[in-house]
Structure formats: structure tokens, C-alpha cells
Amino acid sequence: MIVAIDGPAGAGKSTVARAAAQALGFTYLDTGAMYRCVALARLRDSESDPATLEIVLAGNVMLGGEDVSDEIRSPAVTELASEVAAESQVRAAMAARQQQMLASGDWVAEGRDIGTVIAPHAELKIFLTADPAERARRRAEQTGRPVSDVLAEQQERDRRDGERDLSPLLAAADAVQLDTTTLSADDVIAEIVQLAARRSDGDSQ
Ligand code: DC
Predict the structure, then answer these.
(1) Cα(24) to centroid(ligand 1), Å
(2) Which residue segment(s) compose the domain that 171 sits in?
């Protein structure tokens, strides 16, 4: 079974997807971490080839055998990740790996295009949203940076992620849309776990 969780930065995807995977006993796939690895590799070597990068997601994020879990969250990597994610070669290389992983087993996969492009056959698709100011407030709290800086950068990344030609951020027509602005993470996790349990019982609602 695949649970696809898409949505913009700060909507709560990572917290919710990780916890839902644990509650369901599914494997968690953070596709954003893969784009971040491509960006970090590009920052270090402008000639780096996304197709040959050794990216391993196993709790920690490993790039070429090095734990880059913290480094891929830096503002410079965050900014560049949104740019490399618009490149066709990068998307093709990451999509192939993601689809290979998702081909067997039970997954909670989070990203921007899981329900639309990577796994349009996913049994459950969730599109998480939240008010932009609330999303920026959450990110600022996590990173300790000023809300105004986070909000300005977020607006630019939302625009880039949403307007690009290739796999733009988009809710699948059959996605369940959840606005997390006023919901606690626990409420959202419980809702997703309940929906997944119903889908696996064969209920299409
Ligand atoms: O979810 P995140 O912030 O870690 O994602 C990092 C960047 O990668 C973000 O700019 C959007 C992009 N991304 C994407 O284009 N497609 C995905 N499936 C996941 C992330």
C-alpha cells in the first residue's frame, strides 16, 4: 500500500508522514531529502551528476556514505533544492529511484508530486495545506530564523515549486485535502492513519 502525502513546505508533511508511517508499520520516504542531496552535491561540485549520486535514506540521510542529515537543511541547500527540482534530468533520475523503491512494500511517501506523478495509483493521497503565515511561523520555530525572512523565502519557493513546468506542486484530483492551520500534528496523524486503515479494508471513501 502507498500513502502519498504532498503539499507545500511547512504544511507539516514531514512530522505527519514520519509518524503515520511508524503508526502504520510502513516505510517512510522523504523525497524532498533526495532533492536536497542533489542540491548539496551541486553546491560542492557544480559538475555533479544526479544520476550517479549514492543517496541512502535510512533514518539518517546518507550521500556517498556521508551523513548529511543536518547539512541538507541549511538555507543554501533549501534554496538550491527548489531550483534543481525544476531540472528535467534531476526529476527523471529521482523519479526512477522513487518508483523503484515504491514498487514493493508498504510506504508513506511525502513530496510534491507523489500523488500526481510518482505514484498516481497510490491507495491513499493526502494533500496537506496550511495558511502561509502559519507555515512560516512553524519553519521559523524549527530553524530559529526570523519569521519575516522565512516567509519571504517561502513565497519565492512556493512560486517556483508551483509554477514550474515539470511536476509542479499540485493536488491530485482524488487527494483528500487537509488544512493543518488549526490542527495539531496528532490530529492530522490520527486522521491519516484512520483513512489508511479504511482504504486497506477496501473502503473507497
Ligand atoms: O520537502 P522539502 O522542503 O524537503 O523539499 C525540498 C525541495 O525539493 C522543495 O523545493 C521542493 C522539491 N521537491 C520536489 O520538487 N518534489 C518532491 N517530490 C519533493 C521535493
Answers:
(1) 24
(2) 2-200
